Amino acid sequence: PATPVQLMGFDEMPQAGDSLVVAEDEKTAKDVASQRNQIRREQAMRKTKHMTLDDLSRRLALGEVSELNIIIKADVD
User: Fold this and answer.
1) pTM reported for the whole predicted model
2) What range defines the domain where residue 52 resides?
3) Quick one: DSSP state of residue 65?
4) Per-residue pLDDT tens for 30-44?
5) Is residue 73 part of a domain?
């Protein structure tokens, strides 16, 4: 059967069935975690659909889009 253990140092609780990997030291563990997070971010970015101005214009004409939220980043020197 299973043996209960106490795990420390997690930012969030692992889910049931998650795999745990043992690293030689903390630096190696942080490097592996950083690489995995980078891969997850890249995969999430690929799923995000970017809209061109032509797409926006077409959707506005068809009434599919009624509101456009815009974030403007500007320097105020």
Assistant:
1) 0.46
2) 26-62
3) -
4) 999 899 999 999 988
5) no
